[in-house]
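Quiz preparation item.
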């Protein structure tokens, strides 16, 4: 299984518009972060988790010519805003894009992309999708890939993380229940959000993310959904314990 980090930044990305901080002005490409998303390829199946406002740019940069499905974590704009661009894959395959999401995310998609989901607006050139509704209690399959949802809380908003084999992906979270923690046991590679150092209302801090990593004890952990407040990539990387790395856009790992 191959995972590529398409984006590792927050809702504003890094650099932030008009910001003059050292991170935003850094020339290091590892400090340039598009909105958070990953691509996963296993056997003949390739998916992305989330399709944010940078989706088109991410697909081009990663040279992803085949995409079987988009799986959503939650309905915030930095995770759904790129849905319109799946139409490029419609043109290639002559098939609708498969999307997987909760009822709550589906409602948001219908509001944001009413022309996609309302039959009255159907006309050539708009995205074609087929939706499968999922929830935290149901494991589901996409071709060769089996996904086990993990519900985390993003302040008061439920968000789905996903476990695929021994890989677990958690973004936009600041709380995980004991019941959902059990789904993460035995994870060998963990990706988890670490927004900044200072306490935040809806995201794990660096220290909180490290505490979860210590509890799960994966062989390798990667930090994502990083803001410019966390610090320069090369500086933060030196502070991290063995087995923990700061993810960056374009990073590829194989499990």
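Solution:
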């Amino acid at each position: 299984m191959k995972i590529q980090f398409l984006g590792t930044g927050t809702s504003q990305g890094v650099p932030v518009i008009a910001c003059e901080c050292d991170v935003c002005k850094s020339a290091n490409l590892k400090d340039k972060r598009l909105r958070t998303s990953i691509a996963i390829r296993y056997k003949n199946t390739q998916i992305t988790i989330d399709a944010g406002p940078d989706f088109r740019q991410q697909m081009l940069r990663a040279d992803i010519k085949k995409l079987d499905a988009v799986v959503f974590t939650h309905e915030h704009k930095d995770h759904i805003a790129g849905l319109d661009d799946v139409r490029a894959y419609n043109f290639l395959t002559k098939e609708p894009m498969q999307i997987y999401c909760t009822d709550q995310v589906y409602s948001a998609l219908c509001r944001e992309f009413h022309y996609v989901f309302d039959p009255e607006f159907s006309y050539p050139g708009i995205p074609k999708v087929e939706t499968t509704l999922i929830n935290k209690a149901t494991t589901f399959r996409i071709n060769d890939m089996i996904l086990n949802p993990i519900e985390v809380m993003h302040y008061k908003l439920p968000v789905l993380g996903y476990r695929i084999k021994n890989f677990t992906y958690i973004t936009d979270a600041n709380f995980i229940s004991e019941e959902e923690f059990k789904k993460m046991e035995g994870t060998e590679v963990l990706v988890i959000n670490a927004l900044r150092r200072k306490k935040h209302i809806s995201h794990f801090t660096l220290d909180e993310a490290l505490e979860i990593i210590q509890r799960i004890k994966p062989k390798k952990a990667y930090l994502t959904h990083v803001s410019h407040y966390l610090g320069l990539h090369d500086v933060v990387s030196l502070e991290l314990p063995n087995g923990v790395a700061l993810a960056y856009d374009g990073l590829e790992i194989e499990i």
